[in-house]
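Hello,

Our lab assistant flagged a job as stuck in the queue for most of the afternoon. It eventually completed. Since we weren't sure the result was trustworthy after the delay, we are filing this so someone can double-check. Below is the sequence as submitted and the structure that was eventually returned. Let us know if re-running is recommended.
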Amino acid sequence: MESRDKVIVRTSIIGIIANIMLGAFKIAVGLIANAFTVVLDAVNNLTDALSSVITIAGTKLAGRRPDKKHPLGHGRIEYLSTMLIAAIILYAGITAGVESVKKIIHPAQADYSAVTLIVIAAAIVVKIAIGLYFKRTGNKVNSGSLIASGKDALYDAILSASVLISAVIFMVFHINLEAYVGIIISAFIIKSGIELMLEAVDDVVGKRAEKELTDEIKATICSEPDVKGAYDLLLHSYGPDMFVGSVHIEIPETLTAKEIDLLERRIAEKVYDAHGIIMAGIGIYSFGEGHDEMRTEVYRIISRHDGVLQIHGYYANEQEKTLSVDVILDFELEDREAVFTEILSQVKEAFPDWEVKMTLDLDL
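-- returned structure --
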């Protein structure tokens, strides 16, 4: 089976060749016809080719083997290459906008021909094919750069269509709209660049893992008979398809250290085999028997508040008279801290003889 890196490189090379050929044809036609928007569209093709070059370089660098300084590899370089692509797209969009404004202030007469229209129409077809191919391949190998390039190519097809329409309008009605179409093109390019930059920033900052993935991992963990629940699943991304995770599992307090050790090893192996994720840490919530009425009351007090998403990690230590529980509150609450303080106060009031240790957990 062909490796992920090879698929990305091959796809990017196809994009480079196609975009350079399209760009060269458009520049030639645009200069002959004195059609500014056609030349502008050609420059956009060349920036797409440059983006593919950066994608290849980023993939190669990200694929380097782990070393002493980077024990988890170099996968995050792909996020940086995506940010660089976004910066290039933004520069192209801003430059296009400036040149379009200049054309409005100092207009030049275009000279479209049937050949011009044919070239633009052919470019639209090619761009749609490239866009769909890049998106399909990007989704298949989980490459943000390829997916972004695919979206950009489909945007280009729309923009080329606008150039074609403005050319037809000029030829039929003798109304020159190319500078105004140029502004529309630049706006689309800038929008694409901003969206791509924000996606890359989200990856660098750290974003919530896909719910479908986390639900599947928790289901894998809970397939073990002794596991009563899986909570606080945290996935650290070190590049596409490279996650290191940690989780808390709720298990009976009667399990021995040996049994817990074997259980954790089985869970780590199952998660890696099923999802390709390394579980670096598996913490424990001990589930104790007894105090059922107390547990029910604590859950009732907490759950009656708006914004409570989950209650877990409950444990009552009879000897030390300590009651521990974790609460997850919705990020959409106006004041999560105030709600948490109120919940904690009510639980303490209900059980004055107990030391209540409540944690405001994150909605991961």
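-- support follow-up --
The delay was a queue issue, not a problem with the job. The result is valid. The two ends are 34 Å apart (CA to CA). The domain at 4-205 is CATH 1.20.1510.10 (Alpha-lytic protease prodomain-like).
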